[in-house]
Design goal:
This protein is of the alpha/beta class. The protein has helices spanning 44-54, 84-98, 129-141, 152-155, 162-167; strands at 5-12, 16-24, 29-38, 61-66, 71-79, 109-115, 119-127, 145-151. Strands 3-2-1-4-8 form a 5-stranded mixed β-sheet.
Length: 181
């Protein structure tokens, strides 16, 4: 018997907002496009409203897949062996130099990707606030749990189809330094 798992992926590209259902088994993944609307980053909230209105049943949770243009991803070097609180503060300080968003008020996350004796490299993900925030607010108001936010580039590291790559994401919960959401 094959174990089935289903994830809903909301994917924002430069031209469309699409909702997919990805059903995964140990052997394969199946994608169903539930809804798609042409939009820009600025009109994505209206497209999301149409998608939510069209659904007979609203999903309990979903994952947001952003086109690379709608998030900043950078690597920063930090001292190794900091406490979790110190580590997050040092990553934030280093990332704020490189990313033109106010990290104190923005959603952002990081993952330690390399370490050596004295330094660590953190990959930092910061969605563009003007694109992400309206979508996140609508998702939350609809009572949907937003499990993860990721870019196409990161999802492609798991699978050649970024929608499947997002569905295959397993590092959803955990410590900042270990999980990139």
């Amino acid at each position: 018997m094959l174990f089935k798992q289903q994830h809903f992926i909301l994917a924002l590209t430069q031209k469309q907002l699409c909702l997919y259902a990805v059903t995964s088994t140990s052997a394969d993944q199946e994608i169903e496009k539930i809804a798609a609307y042409d939009c820009t980053a600025q009109t994505a909230p209206q497209a999301l409203e149409k998608i939510l209105t069209k659904l007979a049943t609203v999903p309990h949770s979903l994952r947001l897949l952003l086109a690379d243009e709608y998030a900043y991803i950078t690597n920063v070097s930090i001292p190794n062996k900091l406490s979790p609180k110190e580590e997050r503060a040092v990553v934030q300080e280093a990332a704020e130099i490189l990313i033109p968003e106010e990290l104190a008020t923005a959603l952002w996350d990081y993952k330690i990707t390399e370490t050596d004796t004295h330094t660590a490299t953190a990959t930092v993900l910061v969605p563009v606030v003007r694109v992400y925030q309206p979508l996140e607010e609508m998702i939350t108001q609809a009572g949907i749990i937003l499990e993860a936010v990721e870019t196409t580039r990161l999802a492609l590291e798991r699978h050649e189809n970024p929608v499947i790559g997002m569905a295959l994401k397993t590092d959803i919960t955990g410590k900042d330094a270990v999980v990139l959401n």
